[in-house]
Amino acid sequence: MNGHSDNLKFDEIGYWSEVKLDIIRKYAKAYTTILSKKNHLSYAYIDAFAGAGLHFARETQKFVSGSPLNALRVEPPFHDYFLVDLDGDKVEQLRGFPEVRRREQVHVLHGDCNEVLLRDVFPRVRYEDYRRALCLLDPYGLHLNWEVIETAGKMRSVEIFLNFPIMDMNRNALWRQPDQAGPLGTRRMTAFWGDESWREIAYVDNPQLGLFGTPPSIKVGNDEVVAAFRRRLKDVAGFRHVTEPMPMRNSKNAVVYYLFFASQQPVAAKIVDEIFDKYRDQRGD
Question: 52 and which of 20, 90, 125, 204 could share a cystine (Cβ 3.0–4.6 Å)?
Answer without folding.
Answer: 90
